[in-house]
Specification:
9 helices; 256 residues; single chain; 10-stranded mixed β-sheet; alpha/beta
Length: 256
């Protein structure tokens, strides 16, 4: 089976990373892909960089494999990804953030894993990277399977590691809600309908984490997760507190 993978990248002030991102996709060992970049009204020169790279593809074997969509106004990553989902022509859909890193065999290995498991939704382990995307040695291991109840207390699914089979899951279910931590809200929404996510415990991505105030990031993350429990999942206060406790413990251990 050699069906196409649609890779969706939201773009906002991503100019420093875009050439590396596109070259990284070109070097994937799995070759049947399309790259959909959605510029979210970025104020930098992201769109022009992408257009220059697209021009390089004009004389290639597949000149249409990189496509750019430009939003007329800034709407956020969730709506940018949703635009990409609607435009996707491949059976399989992968998300990639412009500043993250994929190993060259990421698509090949993950697609083989998805087909082996006959799954609709898979994800992989990943490593935290520094601002230069150099691995720090902090690796997030992933479980073999994850259902809805399990996912509520362990946010181990990283956006740049997921792969979906739209032959088994409706594309509309992949649409992200416009909320903080929209990716986590999406995984929960999908799993809530009865799907199981399968984890490939191999590092195939690096999560670039620029130098910021870690304490501030943690507080923001805590507030976002709590809001998801209460507002999106509409869990009771006791259930939310229980899930939040185990989420906090696992999130702390993941960073040690």
């Amino acid at each position: 089976m050699n069906e196409m993978v649609s890779i969706i990248v939201p773009v906002y002030c991503a100019a420093p990373y875009l050439i590396q991102t596109m070259e990284m996709v070109r070097k994937q060992t799995y070759k049947n892909w399309e790259l959909i970049l959605v510029d979210d009204c970025s104020p930098d020169n992201s769109a022009s960089i992408i257009e220059q790279e697209i021009e390089k593809e004009r004389n290639g074997e597949n000149p249409e494999r990189i496509r750019l969509f430009c939003k007329e106004q800034n709407e956020g990553a969730a709506r940018a990804r949703n635009t990409g989902i609607d435009a996707a022509q491949g059976r399989y859909i992968a998300f990639l953030d412009a500043d993250d890193i994929w190993m060259p065999d990421k698509l090949e290995k993950e697609l083989a894993f998805l087909q082996e498991k006959k799954a609709a939704f898979v994800f992989t382990a990943y490593e935290f990277g520094d601002e230069n995307a150099q691995g720090t040695g902090k690796i997030v291991q992933v479980p073999e399977k994850l259902n809805y109840r399990q996912a509520l207390s362990r946010t181990v699914i990283f956006t740049s590691t997921v792969l979906f089979d739209t032959g088994k899951i409706d594309k509309k279910l992949l649409h992200m809600p416009v909320v903080a931590s929209e990716d986590t809200a999406t995984w929960w929404k999908i799993l809530r309908t009865g799907y199981t996510a399968f984890g490939l415990n191999e590092v195939l991505s690096i999560y670039r984490r620029p130098a910021k105030s870690l304490s501030s990031n943690k507080l923001v993350a805590m507030q976002r997760i709590w809001n998801l429990y209460r507002r999106e999942e509409k869990l009771s206060l006791p259930v939310s507190a229980c899930c939040f406790f185990f989420w906090a413990v696992r999130a702390t251990l993941r960073r040690i």
